[in-house]
């Protein structure tokens, strides 16, 4: 069992939680169409649906809110925000957006044209949706180990350079507007990319005139895992490693609702001044003025403070240790999980845990419902439901991984809460034979269906 360091914070304010009965949860889940996403938060005891925007802000962040300059144009808070991004991520041109997918939309509209191709180290639903809606096809070039939950490969976010070369050769460099990388890789279970591999990937892409853009939403967690796992980096600070991860890339998309410990906000950061000017023009149309991008001044102040806090060694050590502790408890009890533990979540291998539930009945979604029914713990499916349908054929995509993701918000839950989660998941696993059938769609929206779909028990 990994060490569980005392939390490097103390509680100043509490938010009451409501305990429900199993009978109440059964009724609530039926009303939500067997989709935990559609539950009201007041009906969830421990909410691990996402770590995005669900973090607890510090006293320094709350005080920063009071300094927010709400001027429409050229607010002082923008320049505070801009300087924090430049200092800790190293990009010159900083364009605020309301959250990460706002940046994905802008970048896709700037660079993608119909018939183009975007390679990346595994898809993320909103990222791929923006790429496909603008006419591109996504190509997964991640290492094979990323698709094997049992593999202990320390950097499952690495790019298979042979796969990337094949995409460039097959599609032609002119048809590839950019390479899309994530640090860490969410859909693989929060798995990191190594500095060495990211640097080699950028060198290969740049040799063909292809830019590389990095999803940095959890790059601080990636930097911590590099410090622990990649030779030669143990003696470097997390802040130094974060800059090293960003350095070879041409820009980044950021959801500040993750590593930056904020409840809303994000940015698009670029090195090319011409591309930055194009992006600012689109931000004016879709987000707001280029000096606020859909955020209030107080939000930008909170993000700037959160960026500085995010690279504090005590903070990130305790944050990742909490994830590792949950993973160890589940793994030691025989629950099949994605190994090694990632930076922000523990993912349960639902296909292995519920082998008697066919993929067509969505075992990841089925397991998410079972865990909620057990103790009011909410996670999210990361499998075929999240993968959606192929836009050309309309057929379901069947990814290699069929997971239940338990994403832990930062600075929110205590060890007692994490033990409750572990006990609940272990109890479901030990009685898994009682789950005799899965789920099918009762309603299926066209995009990002895992958010709004409704299900019914399979016949």
UniProtKB/TrEMBL annotation:
EC identifiers of the protein: 4.1.99.2
Q: Which family does it belong to?
A: Belongs to the beta-eliminating lyase family.
Q: Which cofactor does it need?
A: pyridoxal 5'-phosphate
Q: Report domain Aromatic amino acid beta-eliminating lyase/threonine aldolase positions.
A: 47-423
Name of the protein in question:
Tyrosine phenol-lyase
For this UniProt record, the keywords arranged alphabetically read as follows: Antibiotic biosynthesis, Lyase, Pyridoxal phosphate
Species source reads: Amycolatopsis vancoresmycina DSM 44592
Could you tell me which NCBIfam families the record lists for this protein? PRK13238.1
Q: Which residues carry this modification: N6-(pyridoxal phosphate)lysine?
A: 258
Q: Write out the GO biological process terms.
A: antibiotic biosynthetic process; aromatic amino acid metabolic process
Q: What is a single molecular function from GO for this protein?
A: tyrosine phenol-lyase activity
């Amino acid at each position: 069992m990994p060490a569980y360091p005392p939390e490097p914070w103390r509680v100043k304010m509490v938010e009451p939680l409501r305990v429900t009965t199993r009978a109440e949860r059964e009724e609530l889940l039926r009303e939500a169409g067997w989709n935990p996403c559609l539950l009201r938060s007041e009906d969830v005891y421990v909410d691990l649906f996402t770590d995005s925007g669900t973090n607890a802000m510090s006293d320094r962040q709350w005080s920063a809110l009071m300094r927010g300059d709400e001027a429409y144009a050229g607010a002082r808070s923008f320049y505070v925000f801009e300087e924090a991004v430049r200092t800790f991520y190293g990009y010159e041109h900083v364009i605020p957006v309301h959250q990460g997918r706002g940046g994905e939309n802008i970048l896709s509209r700037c660079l993608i044209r119909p018939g183009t191709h975007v390679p990346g180290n595994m898809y993320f639903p909103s990222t791929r949706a923006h790429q496909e809606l603008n006419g591109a096809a996504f190509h997964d070039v991640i290492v094979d180990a990323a698709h094997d939950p049992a593999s202990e490969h320390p950097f499952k976010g690495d790019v298979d350079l042979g796969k990337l070369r094949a995409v460039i050769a097959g599609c032609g460099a002119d048809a590839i507007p950019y390479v899309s990388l994530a640090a860490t890789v969410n859909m693989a279970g929060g798995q990191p990319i190594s500095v060495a591999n990211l640097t080699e990937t950028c060198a290969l892409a740049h040799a063909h005139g292809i830019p590389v853009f990095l999803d940095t939403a959890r790059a601080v967690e990636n930097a911590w895992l590099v410090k622990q796992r990649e030779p030669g980096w143990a003696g470097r600070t997390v802040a130094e490693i974060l800059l090293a991860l960003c350095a070879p890339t041409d820009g980044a998309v950021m959801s500040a609702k993750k590593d930056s410990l904020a409840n809303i906000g994000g940015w698009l950061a670029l090195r090319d001044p011409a591309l930055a000017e194009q992006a600012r023009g689109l931000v004016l149309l879709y987000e707001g003025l280029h000096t606020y991008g859909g955020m209030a001044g107080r939000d930008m102040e909170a993000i700037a403070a959160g960026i500085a806090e995010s690279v504090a060694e005590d903070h990130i050590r305790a944050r990742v240790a909490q994830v590792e502790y949950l993973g160890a408890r589940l793994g030691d009890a025989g629950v099949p999980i994605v190994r090694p533990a990632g930076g922000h979540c523990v993912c349960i291998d639902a296909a292995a845990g519920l082998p008697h539930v066919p993929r067509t009945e969505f075992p990841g979604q089925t397991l998410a419902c079972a865990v909620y029914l057990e103790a009011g713990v909410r996670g999210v499916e990361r499998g075929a439901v999240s993968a959606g349908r192929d836009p050309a054929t309309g057929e379901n995509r069947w990814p290699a991984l069929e997971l239940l993701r338990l994403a832990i918000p930062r600075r929110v839950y205590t060890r007692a809460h994490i033990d409750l989660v572990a006990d609940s998941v272990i109890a479901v696993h030990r009685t898994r034979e009682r789950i005799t059938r899965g789920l099918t769609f009762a309603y299926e929206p066209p995009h990002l269906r895992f958010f709004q779909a409704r299900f019914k028990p399979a016949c």
